[in-house]
Amino acid sequence: MSGIDIGIIIGYMLGMLALGLYANRKQKNMDDYYVAGRRLGAFSIMCLWLASWVGGASVVGSANTAYEMGITAIWYVGTVAFGCILFALLFSHLIKKIGDKSKHITYPDLIEERYDSRCRIIVTVTTILAYIAYTAGQLAAAGSILHALLGWDLQIAFFVAAFVVIVYTATGGFLAVTYTDWVQFILLLVGVVLTQTLKESKIAGAALDVVLPEPLPTDHEIFKLDNAIFTPHAAFLSTVALCEVRRKCVEEVMRALKGKAPNSVVNITVLDQPNCRINASV
């Protein structure tokens, strides 16, 4: 990496610490520290939830899952993001109204008022356990990124990421979390959109061709009359038919993409039919 790239990463971490110190100057009482003075609106809450739940662990982890499993990896991040937006727009003001009236600090406070202290204990314990795993995932993602970009030892990268988060959170309280999550949400949104845009503009398509599996000889056992009525024969014919359909589809794509990437060669093995391989090359 260039010195400019390293400077941007170091500058980002210093900026997070600076936001924590700035938020610290606005702390006057316990409400300011724990719930940002009860001044957050729906947009701020949406940014908080999206930056927290659709954060590094989700983006990094889902990218790896998408590479292995395909587009179905979007279900986890997509549903969480949709839920965060719905909560912020439809329910956050109701929860805030109840919390402001009763001076709640945490969700277990709300649970205790609605039910009893035993429920509060259960919710508190489960929340702590859940957030241990959640926080570990976020810090692991941050440490992995620093390790990959800067070449630091993995343990040192984890320590630096944890140090930055702990310092600005402990210094500025929930207001510091709000400020930093605004920045992180904007960077996350811009980064994902920019990555997709650059991918589409810089990585061209390729002409495609399909290599069908070798046909079986006509005297093969499966073509005998006594086997023709059984499922294996039908399954074989279905496989050939599926590959033929794919070949027709790929021919249409080939005509559309021909000439865009004359030097690229891509090999794709169809996961559900390993004998039907699609080779994309020009």
Overview of this protein structure:
The protein contains nine helices and three strands; from the N terminus they run ααααααααβαββ. Helices cover 71% and strands 5% of the residues. It is globular, with a radius of gyration of 27 Å. It has two domains: 3-202, no CATH class; 208-281, no CATH class. The chain is mainly α.
Number of helices: 9
Percent helix range: over 70%
Tell me the radius of gyration.
27 Å
The arrangement of helices and strands along the chain is HHHHHHHHEHEE
Overall mean confidence score, pLDDT: 74
Quick one: how many beta strands? 3
Low-confidence stretches: 204-212, 227-242, 265-282
Shape: globular
Query: Beta fraction of the residues?
Result: under 5%
| Largest sheet: number of strands, sense, barrel closure | 3 strands, antiparallel
Look at the helices and sheets and give the structural class.
mainly alpha
Distance between the termini: 32 Å
Say what oligomer this is.
single chain
Number of domains: 2
Provide keyphrases for this structure.
single chain; 282 residues; mainly alpha; 2 domains; 3-stranded antiparallel β-sheet; 9 helices; 71% helix; 5% strand; disordered C terminus
